[in-house]
Amino acid sequence: MRAFALRRVGGAIVTLFATAVVSFLVFRLLPGDPAAVIAGQGATEAQIDAIRKGLGLNGNVVVQFVHWADHAVHGNLGKSVITNVPVSTLLAQRLPVTLELILTSMIVALVVAVPLSLGALWPRSALDRIGNVWPVVGLSVPVFWIGELLILLFSIKLQWLPASGYVSLFQFPLSALKSFLLPSISFGFYVSSFLVQFLKPALRDVMEEDYIRTARAKGLSEASVFWHHALRATMVPFVTQMGILLGTSVGATIVIEQVFNYPGFGNLFIQGIISSDFYVVQAGLLLIVGSVIVVNLVVDLIFGLLDPRVRRAQRT
Amino acid sequence: MRELKVSFGAALAVRGASFTIATGEAVGLVGESGSGKSVTALSLMGLLPAASACVEALELRVVDCDLLTARARELQEMRGGRAAMIFQDPLTALHPMKRVGAQLGEAIRRHSALTRSEARARSIELMRRVGIPEAGSRIDDYPHEFSGGQRQRIMIAMAISCGPRLLIADEPTTALDVTIQAQILDLMAELRSETTMGLLFITHDLGVIARVCERVVVMYAGRIVEDAPVDVLFEHPRHPYTVGLLASVPRIDEAPRVVRPIPGAALRATERIAGCAFRPRCPHAVERCVEQPALQAVGERHLVACWRSREL
Known about the structure:
Chain A is mainly alpha-helical. Chain A has helices at 2-29, 34-39, 45-55, 61-73, 87-117, 126-140, 143-157, 173-207, 210-217, 222-259, 265-274, 278-306, 308-315.
């Protein structure tokens, strides 16, 4: 188990390093010189050169990368080219906002997806039918469109909820709940579609397993069959899917933050791209990929706890 | 069981089958794949999926439980208690993520008032009884840590844990090696000799039947075609299908690779046919066979469903 964990962590570090290299190179290869942008029109070559030097963009690309990477592992991700604020400070401000949004969206998604997935237990029931249609709708309708519709209805027409803005969940829980509701429902609906699409067939497959028939043949009630036998087996695909969703949601919330004008990480990232703020974008890319890697790692380790067969495979 | 009929949509799995198992009797149910053996067994335990299977019968009774009227509660009392079942594939029949001790204990506690630790002690005792070495230390292992034969032994332990009056075994040795098959059959015969447990043994292997059962019921296309004591059936089969089935068994005293299959193919579940379903493949078919022959006594405890059983 320890060797397995070490191997996985090693793999994660290699992937992160590759991401760092790519995210670093992408900006060097793109057209457009950030130094020229900052210097503004009519600046002389010498002025631009000076700015370039100040940004750490002069000299060999490899030297530049080593310089940046050395700082990065020490927690210094550079400064924003535009505002001159350290990127780490910006992330510390913006990331919690996004994480709160992800948390509330996941709660919405689970509250909807788990009951809908249970429709697999009663084939051809109303719940079963709704659960079949749900993902089709949720995955074919764009997230931003749902968001706009919700704003139109609840903010503009009914004026019940704010259309944009952010209130900290920890400082003002009640008004925060109001401001979180629409974006969480928009994103949560999308996530719930993924979950239902995956979880429901998983549960249906488990219910057709031979060991479920054995459990019934023992004389267990349908409730016991579900709680003691089916649930455990369904947890494995469930954790996988939750992991994938959590890992990708740091990147996926970018759209939602744009729609609801949320001062989160996604907002920071988009602004960074638009204004060629490359230190911000580099750090952002690392974070998006890093969150996927970390969650996958955690999921792999949880597998061992859930499934004894995986535990043995992990040992060897 | 009288006139059992089971269908899945347009597919007729069982088309009207009747037989009785006396207390303590070991009955073999034979037939080729798709003849309705397993579906019959599952319907006796009420284990067919309610959403897709349609079960009808004039009478369907297992150890005092009337399956036609029983509520879920009564069915659950019967399953694993008075009647138990073991399945074809021991590799998938146990929950892969639960310790075997927990799976055994659960069956025991469902039908008794034993405490957790008493059930555990009983589980160890049962595992020892079915021949798992070092049962005491293996009780906390997971199914994948046992061999196929051992897993079937554990299934048997689970089945006999509450002293059932009927054990239904659905091809319990088909997925196992020949040597392991023999061991499992010996174990089952041994367990039966100690109790008055009845047995319904489902297989397509006539050799296995001869070894464990006292009576044989032959099934073809969802109907019973012959029902007789083992020695009678092997010596004097009366239904043309049984005759063909016995002739198709490869014999050790003949040249190898001599296989005498029954010509033609079995009736598919979605096919309908008037009268005897074996008619198209039967060498003795006559005009009258377009009417369904009833199961009739042709000798002591010997029933055959064939118009020509008396002349052939």
